[in-house]
Amino acid sequence: MALSKAPLVLYDIAMRPPFAENCCSNNCWKARLALNFKALPYTTMWVPLPEVASTRRRLGVPACRKFADGSNFFTLPILSDPSAGVLIGDSFDIAVHLQRTYPSAGAGNLFPSLPARVTGYRYGDVALPIPLTERRDADGFGDYAQFNVEVDAAFSANLGMAARGTPFDPAWEEEIKASWAKRAGVRSWDDFKLEGAAREAVKKGMEAMMGRLWKEVLTEGGKDDGGVFVLGETPCYADLIVGGWLRLLRATLGREEWEEVRGWQGGFWGRLHDALEVYAEVK
């Protein structure tokens, strides 16, 4: 299909105004990075967090994940592609749609073949209050689907230090905090506070997780050859998956801690984040 003349619409979560500066959903960022990689015209529809479920129902996009009790987890992103006549409600499916519908657009192929160190990466199962994507096969893109699952599990299991910096919209902040506390099974938002030695322990866990990802997967044995992408000079969707999580950390950590993260593994994470900046415009 030729490049879409009708702008696509990316539905993203409206956090603290200005929304474009504070968007922090890792999955919405994966979709945005993929859209910009493909150089497709699109606009962003900002949806307040308490209105995400009703928006998804109104558009007729079913939930793609479930909580442990079997109830639906309604979240974003959603992509509307008027030229193709589709609404897609999962970040991985959005990337697959963009590749199949606009294969040669922008920077080209989102899904080239991956090396064994990437396809073989396994973080392991984790029990979390927010359900993760479970899809591990994707009609020809199964290696990427599996990698997406494992990276999501790795970051989610080590994300405790980011909660307190979530940039909530003040208009909805108290309602959202109460809802998240209930969903996590804690008494109040104060139970998410992580300070002192406990915070340092969680930070060390995150650094260790990211160190393993850097050494075993994103580089060959931690070899610093100046490159930051898994395939060398050219990024692929595996890099965008990780990049979405880096965007979340940038938005939710304080400046000092974000600079720490950027500097881990000899500054690799800062270089990767900055190398993907060309695909990070919020439209």
TrEMBL record:
Domain (GST N-terminal) ranges: 25-100
CDD domains named among the record's database cross-references: GST_C_family (cd00299)
Residue intervals of the Glutathione S-transferase UstS-like C-terminal domain: 190-279
One Pfam family named in its UniProt record: GST_C_7
Name of the protein described by the UniProt record: GST N-terminal domain-containing protein
Organism per entry: Schizothecium vesticola
